[in-house]
Structure formats: C-alpha cells, structure tokens
Amino acid sequence: MKRVKIIGTGSYVPEKVLTNFDIEKIVDTSDEWIRTRTGMSERHIASDRDKASDLAIKAANRALKDSGIAPDEIDLILVATATPDMFFPSTACFVQSSIGAGRSASFDISAACSGYIYALSVAENYIKSDKYNTVLLIASEVFSKYIDWGDRNTCVLFGDGAAATILRGFKGSRMDGIISTHIYSDGRYANLLYLRGGGSSCPPTHESINHKLHFLKMKGNSLFKIAIKNMSEVAREALSSNGYKISDVDILIPHQANKRIIDAVAENLKIPQEKIFINIEKYGNTSAATIPLALDEALKEGRIKKGDLILMVAFGGGLTWGSALIRW
Ligand code: UT7
After folding, report:
1. Are 139 and 283 contained in the same domain?
2. Which of 171, 195, 214 is where one domain is finished?
3. SS3 sequence of 245-296
4. Closest atom of ligand 1 to CA, residue 23
5. 117 with 213, same domain?
6. Number of alpha carbons in the 13 Å side-chain half-sphere of residue 53
7. Which of 20, 37, 232, 309 lies in disulfide reach of 268, CB 3.0 to 4.6 Å?
8. Alpha-carbon distance 88 to 16, whole Å?
9. Phi-psi label, residue 58: left if phi above 0, alpha if psi -120 to 50, beta otherwise
10. Ligand 1 nearest-atom number relative to CA 290
11. Could you state, in chain order, the average pLDDT of each consecutive group of 10 residues for the chain (328 residues)?
12. Positive or negative, the Cα torsion across 266, 272, 273, 274?
C-alpha cells in the first residue's frame, strides 16, 4: 500500500525580533497583558524588502538539505499562505524558479492558519493516488505587513515566519507515515477573521486605504471559543477514526494562536502538558507556519523519535480547521 512520509523539514524566521516591551512603545498595552492573555513574549518581523517567497525559499532550501534530495526530484510545490507575494503568479511559482525545481507543478493554498494541514491533506492525496511522489510543502506568512499597528487587539498577536516539509511516497503498512488528515470549514463565520482590502469585493481605492480595509480584522473573543471546541473535536476524531486513544499520542503540535486556547484544548483532551509542543512565546502566531515551525523545532530539539505518534490540530480564518495524525 502506498504511504506518505516526511523526509525533510526546515524553517526560517526573519532576524528582527519585536518584544512585548517594544510593542508597549507603539500601542497602549503591556508585557504583562500580552504574556498572561496570549503566552507570547516576542515575535519575528520581516524587513520591508522581504516577501512571503523570500522566507519560503530559505525554509525550502533548509528542508531540501535536511532531506538530501535534489530540487529536480520535486513533483509538486504547495505554498500555504494568506499573505502571498501577489494575487498571481502564485508564491509557489516564485519558490520553484528560485530553488530550481524545474519539473514541478506549483500552486498556493489559501486556508489561513489551517493552511499547512490543508496542504498536507492535498499532498497526501496526490501522493496516495500516484499522481505525484515527492511534494515540497511550505507555509510562509508575513502578516506584519497587513497588521494595523495602531490596533492593540491584533498587533500584539502575529509574527512572521516560514517552514517547509518534504513529503514522499513509499510502500508501507496502514499505520506508517501520515495515518490520516481531516479538514473542515464553515464559511458562515467568515466575518470573524478576514482581510478584505484589495480583493474583488474591495479593490484598492483611496477610500479603502483611509478606512484601513487593507489590514487584518478579527473578532478574537468569538474565535477563541470556537477554536477550543473545534480543535478539541477534530483531535478526538483523528484518534477515534484510527483506533487510538489520547494516551497513545507522544506529541501534540497545536496551532499556536494563544497559549490559553492550547491549555483549554489540553484540558478537554486530558493530555499532559509535557506532551504538547509550544513555542508561541518566541514566535507569536505565524498563521499557517505555526505547526511546521513547531515540527521542525521539535525534531531539531530531539523531542520526536522514530515510531512516535504525532497529532497536529489547526484552526483559522474561513473558518477552517483540521488535523493530521502521523507515525514518525
Ligand atoms: O490564528 C487563528 C485565529 N486566531 C484566534 O483564534 C485568536 C483567538 N482569540 C484570542 O486569542 C483572544 O480572544 C485575544 C488574545 C485576541 C484577546 O484576548 P481576550 O481575553 O479574548 O480579550 P478581550 O478581547 O475580551 O479583551 C479584554 C480586554 C478589553 O478591555 P475591556 O473592554 O475589558 O476594558 C480589551 O480592550 O483587554 C483589552 N485588550 C488589551 N489590553 C491590553 C485587548 N487587547 C489588548 C492589549 N493590551 N493588546
């Protein structure tokens, strides 16, 4: 049976670090509020020049090195991003030309913070159907460019970063590599998190700029409750549909939007803190990149060993959410 495994990972965050104390100088907030309400202490911010593709290319090159494969072995490049370089061409096309993956098809996936899990599901199914065998998946976000730095409700939350994963098909048993992915959406809640300006519902005008429509808008409080419910449910489904219990999980890698959301999900699932990988303190919410960034870091820190059961759960604008269960 054809299975799918991760054969390389890599990540990149911009050099510039913005601490909570730096943000105290920009808006009416405090390090104490940000830390206790979100778990964040600092985040990385892209330079004016850096585009989503610049971060993505650096992460991709690190994942290529980690996997030991050559760029021309890649059949498909997927970039999960809500902050692409342009409407078109896709950011994936810019990555393709830079890394020299001459044979690959390339496209972007838009599922906001759930983008990595969505793209993982797409990659898994392309590989299992035998259409492609080697997929480079990168989540890359530069939300700092779309944040209203005068809005304390959102500007403290987001950071920039990218992380890449290389996936490959192999013959194995049902319980090797990616065991399952589940993805969901509920567009009735689209108004809880969105960026309208520049899209066809709101082409750029002087008025759209004056009304700050080119910045991310979020109803954090409503999202908070739905995120806990949906992430808990999708985690339970990932396990029950494959005959596992929460005690079988070696490491939970949740989307890092708020430490309090992660704690509440952990409480619902009854999973001990030491089995959860959390790095929100250093990076903030890097949207689609949080999960692969955490995966890369967990691997480099030796937190994941061969045979471990990894559960990933994501949640984001759309609304979108999903899970991936992986036997390492
Ligand atoms: O990535 C995927 C999607 N994102 C999420 O799922 C994010 C989900 N939401 C959240 O993480 C939280 O709702 C936030 C961190 C955004 C906000 O935390 P909260 O505990 O829900 O705070 P709140 O919005 O209910 O605001 C509580 C108070 C308000 O003051 P009043 O009205 O009670 O006087 C806010 O004005 O905190 C105030 N506040 C702040 N104070 C200092 C909001 N932001 C700040 C701030 N600094 N940065």
Report:
1. no
2. 171
3. CHHHCCEEEECCCCHHHHHHHHHHHCCCHHHECCCHHHHCECHHHHHHHHHH
4. 48
5. no
6. 20
7. 232
8. 28
9. alpha
10. 1
11. 95 98 97 98 98 98 98 98 98 98 97 98 97 98 97 97 98 89 98 96 95 96 96 98 97 98 98 98 98 98 97 98 98
12. negative
Backbone angle region of 295, left / alpha / beta, with phi > 0 → left and psi within -120 to 50 → alpha? alpha
Q: What is the CATH number of the domain that holds 89?
A: 3.40.47.10
Q: pTM surpassing 0.85?
A: yes
Q: Ligand 1 centroid to 210 CA: how many Å?
A: 24
Co-location of 138 and 281 in the same domain: no
Query: Catalytic: 155?
Result: no
- Whole-angstrom Cα distance, residue 46 to residue 20? 17
**Residues paired with residue 144 on neighbouring β-strands, in sequence order:** none
Question: Which of 113, 155, 230, 258 is flagged as catalytic?
Answer: 113
Residue identified by tokens 């005959």 is 243
Cβ of 290 less than 6 Å from ligand 1: no
Give the full edge-to-edge strand order of the sheet including 134-141. 2-12, 161-171, 134-141, 76-80, 105-109
* Phi, psi at 278, each rounded to 5°: -130, 125
